[in-house]
């Protein structure tokens, strides 16, 4: 079967820190990172321009740090640094596959990565380099979901692809509610009204205001990223109107 042409020219891939853990309780699983890098490689080879935002929840979250008695702002900065660790791991895996990659950070650390400069990041994308955005927005109280929405807007992405361990959005947590129903399409307002944990409300509102679609899909199934960019009905789609 011949490959179908990509329906998206430029994507923003949102990877949670948990997506890098594999079956581990925390940290980075090398095999899982390698599998994700293979998925990105396959799409990159099709000529799709790729930006990636990584989370840090596999190492630490600001909210969780606060429960340990750490100041929330300090905890959020710790979480931002965790995303840089994950970004470097993904960058290394991609470069082992001969994919030109740039890691850019919202917090300046020139010995480790480039500072985020919008025009430079867009130039990297135009040169077919995968750009990994780390350190969130650089501000406390904002999640990497919000960073993904913001960066997607800034680089002019066609879509946000949220990679998860489940095959889409459900009416309730399928791990807790056995009769939860998978939703193929849903509107931004429905996500907010139902309190569904797709992305945080700031990110959803930003995407709604700019009519940027979100596709939630299972990254653990080999080939799914390619299927999404080819337009297959994989996962769930969030947009202004339900079809």
Low-confidence stretches: none
Helicity level? 25-40%
CATH class: Alpha Beta
Distance between the termini: 28 Å
Number of domains: 1
CATH architecture group name: 3-Layer(aba) Sandwich
Largest sheet: 9 strands, mixed
Rg from Cα: 17 Å
Determine the CATH topology: Carbamate kinase
Strand content: 15-25%
Morphology: globular
Q: State the secondary-structure class.
A: alpha/beta
In words, what does this structure look like?
This protein is an alpha/beta fold and 243 residues long. The protein has one domain: Acetylglutamate kinase-like (Carbamate kinase). The protein is 36% helix and 19% strand. The strands form 2 sheets. Strands 4-3-5-2-1-6-10-11-9 form a 9-stranded mixed beta sheet, with helices on both faces. Strand 1, helix 1 and strand 2 form a beta-alpha-beta unit. The protein starts with 9 loop residues before the first strand and ends with a strand. It is globular, with a radius of gyration of 17 Å.
Features:
two-stranded antiparallel sheet, alpha/beta, about 35% helix, about 240 residues, Carbamate kinase, 9-stranded mixed β-sheet, 8 helices, single chain
Strand and helix map with partners:
Blueprint: E1 10-15, H1 30-44, E2 49-54, H2 62-67, H3 72-95, E3 101-105, E4 114-115, H4 118-126, E5 130-134, H5 144-155, E6 159-164, E7 169-170, E8 182-183, E9 185-187, H6 188-194, H7 201-209, E10 214-218, H8 224-229, E11 236-239
Parallel strand pairs: 1-2, 1-6, 2-5, 3-4, 3-5, 6-10, 9-11
Antiparallel strand pairs: 7-8, 10-11
Helix pairs in contact: 1-3, 5-7, 6-7
């Amino acid at each position: 079967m011949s490959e179908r042409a990509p329906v998206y020219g430029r994507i923003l891939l949102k990877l949670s820190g948990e997506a890098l853990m594999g079956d581990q309780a925390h940290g980075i699983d090398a095999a899982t990172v390698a599998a994700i890098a293979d998925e990105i490689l396959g799409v990159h080879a099709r000529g799709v321009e790729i930006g990636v935002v990584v989370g840090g929840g596999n190492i630490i979250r600001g909210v969780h740090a606060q429960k340990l008695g750490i100041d929330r702002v300090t905890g959020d900065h710790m979480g931002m640094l965790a995303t840089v660790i994950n970004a470097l791991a993904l960058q290394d895996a991609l470069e082992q596959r001969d994919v030109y990659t740039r890691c850019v950070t919202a917090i300046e650390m020139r010995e480790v990565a480039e500072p985020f400069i919008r025009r430079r990041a867009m130039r990297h994308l135009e040169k077919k380099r995968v750009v990994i955005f780390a350190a969130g927005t650089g501000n406390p109280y904002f999640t990497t979901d919000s960073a993904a929405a913001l960066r997607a807007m800034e680089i002019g992405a066609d879509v946000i692809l949220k990679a998860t361990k489940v095959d889409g959005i459900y009416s309730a947590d399928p791990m807790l509610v056995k009769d939860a129903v998978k939703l193929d399409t849903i509107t931004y307002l429905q996500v907010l009204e139902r309190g569904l944990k797709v992305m945080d409300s700031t990110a959803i509102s930003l995407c709604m205001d700019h009519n940027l679609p979100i596709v939630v899909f299972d990254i653990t199934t080999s080939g799914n990223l390619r299927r999404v960019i080819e337009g297959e009905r994989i996962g769930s789609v969030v947009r202004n109107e339900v079809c």
